[in-house]
Amino acid sequence: MNYVSTRGGAAPTTFRDALLRGMAPDGGLYMPARWPTLSAGDLRAAAARPYVDLAADILGLFAGESLPPAAVRAAADRLTGTFHHAAITPLVQLEPNLWVLELFHGPTAAFKDLAMQMMAVMTDAALEGTGQRLLLLTATSGDTGAAAVRAFAGAESVDLAVLHPLDRVSPVQRRQMTTVDAPNVLNLAVRGDFDDCQRLVKAILADETLREGRRVSSVNSINWGRLAGQVPYYVAAASALGAPHVTPRFVVPTGNFGDAFAGWVARAMGVPLTLIAAVNRNDALARALNHGRYERTAANPTASVSMDVQAPSNFERLLFEATGRDADATRGFFETFARDGAVDLAPDLLAALRADAAAVSIDEDRTRAEIAHAWKAYGRVICPHTAVALAAARDMAREGGPVVALSTAHPAKFPESVAPVLGFEPPVPPALAAITGGKERLTVIDADLDQALDAVKALAGASP
Ligand SMILES: Cc1ncc(COP(=O)(O)O)c(C=O)c1O
Ligand SMILES: N[C@@H](CCOP(=O)(O)O)C(=O)O
User: Fold this and answer.
1) Dihedral angle sign, alpha carbons of residues 219, 221, 222, 224
2) Which ligand sits nearest to residue 226's alpha carbon?
């Protein structure tokens, strides 16, 4: 299986290389050259298979021969040891047409653990025997960084730099990143928003001098390895609901559009499903799909803090597909966006995008109301991100047919948003019990490339 860049200026490469590069050298994102397929029989069988078996098979389809099959299997098996639920991603029915897919039973209590734990094992395998060190860069609005620190702290051949927006992640998320005492981890708190952090990470990835003597990659969802690890739960959930004979609608709380794009991939592989991206009031994606103009504006702080994103990286993958994989058009679009901060979508392109995904924006009042409703109606304490998805999903469930809201984080990561609505603190799961104490380690920087590069070079230079 080869991987091509959405911008067409990089040589096709393997899964292993895409994993160890993060982004293509031409500034594009890697995509499989063709979509592997799941047959109707595969989908029927999937409903009865353990999650880790399904995950191993799907990862194997994407990894091809570039990683040893035993490493792919070990990556999937990692979930058994690190998740606190036997089903890994349990599907829970709330109403006749409404389900939640619980994705927060991992070691940092957010859906990022599903792919990140597997990436740590695959990254080890990809580096084995090379004698190379890998510098991993991560922009986070809270959860990716926590999952990455958990997965890579202490890793022998890896350095990890995590950039989060100063004071714009929850205190629990911040402590998950900053209280881990590992010499290979650097936390940078950036005076800015998540989009600034993501811009800095992409700029650092483009700095070729850093690559002298080491590999440099990212564990954000710009890395194909992350998306590959997020596809299995769509397959598992759709199969459990009766695919291929049933077409569930998945409502995905969305920030960087990685999770939703993993659903798009499942559909490209043959899973019948419909995608609805639910965003908070940071609605660049919803404005693009609903009004035809993709425009960057400053991110507004919300209760669903991890979705405070206004330049979702994976929109590039969606656009690449909607143009019929036209790399020149994709490059032109994102160069214009980088220069002007806005691009109007031509009517045929907009129609193609709308055929792939719909988007709704849920405001802060509805988010709070949904947290209250979930407790009153179902006895469930939900996080604000889940609330954004569930608010949209409940509307859709009234129309008939199965609707699944993705529940992406445990509410105990966001007590400051949940407790004022419910009047009590969310119960703390085992995964979060250990992070209350401990000294925090973080360096505050401006949203400035030189400052970020200096800090990252110091981390990389300090390594053996
Ligand atoms: C809890 C939670 N829900 C939803 C999202 C949005 O996911 P994505 O960025 O893949 O759209 C994030 C951040 O990634 C998150 O941390
Ligand atoms: N919401 C994310 C932002 C980064 O998203 P990613 O999926 O591209 O890693 C976070 O919590 O960090």
Assistant:
1) positive
2) 2
Q: What total of structural domains would you count in the chain?
A: 2
Ligand nearest to the CA of 165: 2
Q: Domain for residue 47, yes or no?
A: yes
Residues 103 and 149 in one domain: no
Residue 179 forms part of a structural domain: yes
State the catalytic residues.
Answer: 112
Is 220 a pocket residue for ligand 2 (Cβ < 6 Å)? yes
What pTM was estimated for this model as a whole? 0.98
pLDDT at 436 > cutoff 80: no
Q: Using most ligand atoms within 8 A of CB, pick from 194, 259, 310, 385 the residue to mutate for ligand 2.
A: 194
Ligand 2 atom nearest to 313, measured from its CA:
8
Q: What is the pLDDT of residues 343-365, one digit of tens each?
A: 999 999 999 999 999 999 999 99
The answer to whether residue 123 sits within a structural domain is no
The Cα-based distances of 133 to 20, 217, 331 in angstroms read 10, 11, 31
Same domain, 167 and 298: no
Task: Count other Cβ atoms within 10 Å, centred on residue 360.
Answer: 21
Q: What residue numbers bound the domain in which 414 lies?
A: 1-116+222-433
Mean pLDDT of all residues in 136-161: 97
Cα separation, 200 vs 460, in Å, equals 16
Is residue 145 a contact partner of residue 177, using CB atoms and an 8 Å limit?
Answer: yes
Helix (H) or strand (E) holding 456: helix 449-461
pLDDT in tens, 116-131: 999 999 999 999 999 9
> Is there a domain that residue 125 lies in?
no
